[in-house]
């Protein structure tokens, strides 16, 4: 018997494409055995409020019926089954959803499509709010096929959590039945370093249920959330196969070739690979050094760059754009954004950069910007803003009887640049890519409607200290394609004479570890100070973070590559008393 893992890549609600994939698999591939498809394969994930839309429900029901009708017309074959993730509606007389379940559908040639298992654990943290939409299953899933006992799971079912009433793994073990294989159909969002934990948890379940474990995950970029695929199979501690990252893939594994393994006796109540372990702060502490972020390895840099490139391409493709536009300043952030875009540019896409200097822009910024565009072989345009700024200053003085100066004078430069950038985007039908990093977004070190603009943020989940790591890795892999001066120069916004980021912020290696402590929800200001960080730095960062919520609430989508990111999974009131943040 063969187990087929179908790591699919479809657009949400693209029903015809989904049907075509199923029909093609049956017609053109060796089909004997069990075919596994990801969670919600039949509709896409996450649906959010789309699953409540009348038109969606109607189209989806027709879609399921078309597949069922096709399957019933096939000649009966007891050696083939398709197990596919989807949703099941129980509708009122008015065709409105009374109940929605996240299920596994069984497709057998010669029979109608039917559901055989309902997801038991509905995640309701970070980007997930499944309890808003779905009703949980109450019983474990076991399906007998060709004398093989199959334990059924959907994504979250594999992750133990004290807040859930049941643990499917424990409940399956309690049945006392022997299992020949365990399957998990997933739509598991990506974040850096998550894959190792998925495999570790799968190995634990394989030992607990004494059977090989098959995990199939979807691929796709859904707005800011990425799905990486990386499907796999394990048997005990042995990894049997791994599929590609961020690519559609398929593999067939012969169940009969599995070597017998020694399964360990594991207490599932004492395992450490739980859903909470996915959100552990990325902070290294020891007695000899100040707390610091765990550095990115070369492999992690490669993976992060690949994820960012995949995410921005998915967003642009699904929104109908094939041209990217970047405001290039000569700083490391915009240089990195431009380089990542170029490295992932397809033959049908275009990329250009616009440099918009003011009188505060240094000669080095122009040199770096021109050199980078030459290295990347992309169009480079210079669009000075000084004349436009002078006009604005004159208007303020003449009509408002007050000179434009101080912070207002600084910020109008950024807002003029955003106006020109978006005008160029309109002119060329391009998508403007934001260049702010996670550190800046966290402390409000950006101008709202200025350098915070863009259709999507490439670096909004990358701390400033990690920006340098990614740039250095790219230079090592691509022969110093980013000018070294961009990496070596002190960071500056160039909105006034001799401005440096450290004028108003702690050094980024200190800032970033404080932010990681805040964003993980695990540390108070007092605890951060107890770890050896300066009370002045900690309290000032907490204040900046708290006072910048209104900016973050209006920020563009951010490509998520970390366990805890700003954006879809981060929901905090804008209007609140933030005194508790600095309560020491």
Could you explain the architecture of this structure?
This protein is an alpha/beta fold and 584 residues long. The protein has two domains: 2-279, Nitrilase/N-carbamoyl-D-aminoacid amidohydrolase, CATH 3.60.110.10; 295-505, Rossmann fold (3-Layer(aba) Sandwich), CATH 3.40.50.620. 34% of the residues lie in helices and 18% in strands. The protein has helices at residues 15-28, 54-72, 168-174, 194-209, 298-319, 332-343, 363-376, 386-400, 407-428, 438-443, 464-477, 484-488, 508-519, 525-530, 535-547, 549-552, and strands at residues 2-7, 33-36, 80-91, 97-107, 114-118, 141-145, 148-154, 181-186, 213-217, 219-222, 225-228, 232-235, 238-242, 249-254, 283-284, 292-293, 323-327, 350-355, 380-382, 431-434, 456-457. The protein has a six-stranded mixed beta sheet. Strands 6-7-8-9-12-13 form a six-stranded mixed beta sheet, with helices on one face. The chain has a five-stranded parallel beta sheet with strand order 19-18-17-20-21, with helices on both faces. Helix 5 packs across helix 11 (464-477) and helix 13 crosses helix 15. The radius of gyration is 26 Å and the shape is globular. The model has no long low-confidence stretch (mean pLDDT 92).
User: What's the CATH first level of the largest domain?
Assistant: Alpha Beta
**Biggest pleated sheet:** 6 strands, mixed
Q: How many H/I helical runs?
A: 16
Shape call: globular
Helix content: 25-40%
Overall tally of structural domains: 2
Task: For the record, give the distance between the C-alpha atoms at the N and C termini, rounded to a whole number.
Answer: 62 Å
CATH architecture of the largest domain: 4-Layer Sandwich
- Structural class by SSE content: alpha/beta
Residue-averaged pLDDT:
92
Low-confidence stretches: none
What is the CA-based Rg, rounded? Answer: 26 Å
Could you tell me the CATH topology label of the largest domain: Nitrilase/N-carbamoyl-D-aminoacid amidohydrolase
- Tell me how many strands there are: 21
Strand order of the largest sheet: 5-4-3-2-1-14
CATH superfamily of the largest domain: Carbon-nitrogen hydrolase
Assess the beta-strand content as a share of residues: 15-25%
